[in-house]
Write a structure and sequence with these properties.
This protein has four helices and no strands. By secondary structure, the protein is mainly α. It is extended and about 75 Å long.
Length: 173
């Protein structure tokens, strides 16, 4: 009975008891998938463009701040310089987030995306450490708690980066 019209139950269909979908339903599902996929791709591209615009505006703003501080003489104030460093590191965070979005758009290697996220975290925490001032906290215990928290987070990020770089095959950038 090799030519029997009885369906073979040894196929790899996901739901053996469910009737086969008609071709029109499959095409409809594919169309919905295509539309939603294009929508997600468009949102990703818009996010990348937004981060690129933010970076451009930030660079112009930083340049204006530097020119103004040079003309007023405030460039010699250490707090002003720390403000420039803080802004510069914020711009680097924007670049790393942009790179992460681009990696998602390009459907890059997951390890590359993870590495970008870790780099973003490291830059963000270094920025927090640079602008850390005990005078901004109500009590000395609050400042100590923040400092210990920053230290733990930075050590965790460094450990993650070390593990990511030392385990597995080298990442092709």
């Amino acid at each position: 009975m090799a030519d029997s019209p009885v369906p073979d139950s040894s196929d790899d269909s996901p739901a053996p008891d469910a009737p086969d979908e008609p071709p029109s339903a499959r095409r409809s599902g594919e169309r919905v998938f295509d539309v939603t996929n294009r929508f997600i791709r468009g949102v990703e591209l818009a996010a990348a463009a937004l981060f690129a615009l933010l970076f451009g505006v930030g660079v112009v703003d930083l340049a204006i701040q530097i020119v103004e501080s040079v003309s007023t003489g405030a460039i010699t104030d250490p707090n002003t310089v720390i403000g420039f460093i803080e802004t510069g590191l914020l711009l680097l965070i924007i670049v790393e987030v942009y790179e992460t979005v681009v990696a998602y758009i390009e459907q890059s290697n997951t390890r590359r995306i993870v590495r970008l996220v870790i780099y973003t975290g490291v830059i963000a925490m270094v920025r927090k450490v640079i602008i850390y001032r005990t005078s901004e906290y109500a009590a000395a215990e609050d400042a100590l708690f923040a400092a210990v928290s920053y230290t733990i987070i930075i050590l965790g990020l460094v450990a993650l980066l070390y593990v990511e770089r030392s385990v597995g095959y080298p990442l092709q950038e």
